[in-house]
Amino acid sequence: xxxxxxxxxxxxxxxxxxxxxxxxxxxxxxxxxxxxxxxxxxxxxxxxxxxxxxxxxxxxxxxxxxxxxxxxxxxxxxxxxxxxxxxxxxxxxxxxxxxxxxxxxxxxxxxxxxxxxxxxxxxxxxxxxxxxxxxxxxxxxxxxxxxxxxxxxxxxxxxxxxxxxxxxxxxxxxxxxxxxxxxxxxxxxxxxxxxxxxxxxxxxxxxxxxxxxxxxxxxxxxxxxxxxxxxxxxxxxxxxxxxxxxxxxxxxxxxxxxxxxxxxxxxxxxxxxxxxxxxxxxxxxxxxxxxxxxxxxxxxx
Amino acid sequence: xxxxxxxxxxxxxxxxxxxxxxxxxxxxxxxxxxxxxxxxxxxxxxxxxxxxxxxxxxxxxxxxxxxxxxxxxxxxxxxxxxxxxxxxxxxxxxxxxxxxxxxxxxxxxxxxxxxxxxxxxxxxxxxxxxxxxxxxxxxxxxxxxxxxxxxxxxxxxxxxxxxxxxxxxxxxxxxxxxxxxxxxxxxxxxxxxxxxxxxxxxxxxxxxxxxxxxxxxxxxxxxxxxxxxxxxxxxxxxxxxxxxxxxxxxxxxxxxxxxxxxxxxxxxxxxxxxxxxxxxxxxxxxxxxxxxxxxxxxxxxxxxxxxxxxxxxxxxxxxxxxxxxxxxxxxxxxxxxxxxxxxxxxxxxxxxxxxxxxxxxxxxxxxxxxxxxxxxxxxxxxxxxxxxxxxxxxxxxxxxxxxxxxxxxxxxxxxxxxxxxxxxxxxxxxxxxxxxxx
Lengths: 301, 438
Prior knowledge:
heterodimer, A: alpha/beta, Rossmann fold, six-stranded mixed sheet, four-stranded antiparallel β-barrel, 8 helices, 10 strands, 31% helix, 16% strand, globular, B: alpha+beta, Elongation Factor Tu (Ef-tu), domain 3, eight-stranded antiparallel sheet, 7 helices, 23 strands, 17% helix, 34% strand, disordered N terminus
């Protein structure tokens, strides 16, 4: 007999997320898990392991490779999938451009927008009726209103004014052919919860989250990693800094933060004391106050 | 086995009329508890410089969607997160318009506590009564009446007591809350929100945040009656470990009670009895598990159990019936008329259902039932009789929020059209074979 029959905050969030994942397995025919190798999807994968053990995770992993990923992230992604014996499907923005599925605007360098048609094409190719993702409501204002089970119409669009009411833990999972659901088991998690869970579960995360030396270029008020696809322009300030990432997007939009944090404990202390949001470090979210809402309407993650 | 948990989660919702200052209150809680980040403050500052004449508008923190910024109203449920060293908080910000009962029900369905805002100048309005009524219907155990804009009534204790007395006069009719608190605040200036106010020397109670941090929520879950709705059957296909070849587990989230290894359990609707052999929890294999843990049960006998079945304590049977009474909140623009057919999702079971009659419509401002209405319209709350294609295995909503709730789904459009709360069963489940043991 235990002295207390109450869950602490991580156990509560874990139970809730596992319930959502099992609901996906029970009610959808062709679900998949979006796995990037980032910290949120690492937690998601761990929760999926726990939800279904001793059975293997009963759905494939899907990743949209923009071609601008940090190489260490892709290596981690592939290795983790191998360790779990999971089926990993990768679809590349590059290939989508070649096939005419995604068309860059003249001079458009960012692959952010082009992920959308690539993802929707993959959903169509594999007839996925549910895509489980690691997005959290605390990340951004538009996400704060999203449901655990977020309905997408035949064009993959999100209609924030026409969301299904979500009451108790009773999720309406029904979709018609061609429509699908985005499912977010980590909806109620915060950035701090994610790191505390990584610590509790002793989860491995890509090294890029920890402090390391890197050549960085100053652009639009943030430090970006110098790379083949992001060479410094003449006159730009380049410095070798002790940095890490707080959130990972593409190479060309992910701000590196100066930090000495080289352990999970350090990161937790840093996040707990942080005075800017994690998305504050991503150029793609800063383009406008409604930037995320616009992309989500079109079918963004 | 875990030790006493250090940090709990409290879920609460805020409700008030359009100008009662809900968004300002949440903004104030986030701001004063230092949960707002610099980039969020900068964005606020920018919009303040552009539109607000330099004054930061705390309400802008929560008003997320573009349509809202354009109309200046909150149109949907938004969730906010903040933490203090004592607790984590999940806030459902639900709008206060008459026509948005639907959203309030949504936000309230998972809340432990409701904060109802009352404008000190207006006093108790029809909206206040509606909000209290919905919190009561949704079975929220704790309620706080935050009497806001006290600065605009010169911090008058008499005014505060007058409002308090008026609320206390109608609360017994609702007969619902485990505890009720009244707190005089100014969300705009921060008095008694996070820090105690110097303007209310006559008020000796806690600040709002202090109350949220300390209110006793440990007994909000039903830990007395074992309820385990089977969600997913766990059968490893071609397991690498030969020991798992015959593994057959039943996964789900405990909706009530505590389950222990060696305990005799009963499976509904079949009525078979068996014993719990193993409990897989997220922490590993454990001798016991409790609500609301997500677990996997391994049973002594190889029974034919499927999703939608419920595993219970044989001495504490739930109701089991195809004919039930329930209160529902109608959430769709197309009105409900008797005779319509729906899909009904209850625990892990989805069945066909027909609303055979509408018994009454509840006036949520006067709490009076209006008998036999022809239909229920969007945002109406009413009592209905429902017939289902398979028996529901259930408890009254006020006994167990998880086994007493359901949603109605319109076939074809798949719209969620109603949230339902079951009336207590008239009798426990009747079993065909009461002593049948394999």
